[in-house]
Amino acid sequence: MPNNRRYMILGLVLGVLALGSSVVPEMSNPAAGQPLNLTGYYVTFDEKFNHLDISAYGSDRQWIAHTPWNGDFGDAIFGNPEQDGPFSINAQGLEITAKRGTNGKWTSGLICSVDKDGPGQHGFAQKYGYFEMKAILPSGSGTWPAFWLVGRDKTHAGAEIDVIEYYGGFPKYFHTTEHVWVMGKNALLRTQLIEVPEGSLSSGYNLFGVLITPQKTTFYLNRHEYWQTTTPPEYQQPMYILADLALGGGWPISDLPSPQVMQIAYIKVYSKTP
């Protein structure tokens, strides 16, 4: 989720505000979509966050607290799992807290399911299947939470699927974006702006999911389809998981109240029975 993408998304949001959602192309109504059918699938990854299983960078835990390519982003520093850090466990699962320190600087949190890119990588990645996060998102303007996947093989291109990318200042919309990166530029860019009941992503839990097959990539909100694309060759590989509470994304955070919280009940992955 490089910072140079924020201005593309910013332009899309501003276009919606200027023109009205009725005239903006590629809008979705998730409630009207087909329900998810997981018949023939089984759970391969089931993280309910019953305990804190995060390390700074090492391979000894389920998650690391940074991107595996040392490319952290946004206007808050992603902190490590330590006392007074951004991560905590409660009865509802994992809580990621963004807060402003006494020095005026913000810290927040990110989790990733592999420890590094390249040879010797450890952690969870899966080719094809259904990936899902159940979460409550913060609503403050300047909050920028996300749930996304990245392809393990970056030899020739970088594959990225942003299942949900949410700008808290616009509580009626979220974004879903597909990327293929080559030499830092978008060789493939497909994006969808999804309209939801205002405030619904912050007032309770929602399910954000993507089903990747060799032929199609299908996106779901609360297990109802809202977008489907043709699966590009770059997505036909194991993908690893990231979830974060970033800040900024092109929006100021000087007036953002502290703290801001993202609550994740679970992250699950399913694979089709052979």
Automatic annotation (TrEMBL):
Q: Which CDD domains match?
A: GH16_laminarinase_like (cd08023)
Top-rank taxon, per record? Bacteria
Q: Give start-end of the signal peptide.
A: none
Matching Gene3D superfamilies: 2.60.120.200
Q: Where is coiled-coil annotated?
A: none
Q: Which PROSITE patterns match?
A: GH16_2
Under Pfam families, the record lists:
Glyco_hydro_16 (PF00722)
The biological processes this protein is annotated with in GO are: carbohydrate metabolic process
Q: Which family does it belong to?
A: Belongs to the glycosyl hydrolase 16 family.
Listed name of the protein: Beta-glucanase (GH16 family)
Organism (species): Acidocella aromatica
Taxonomic lineage of this organism?
Bacteria, Pseudomonadati, Pseudomonadota, Alphaproteobacteria, Acetobacterales
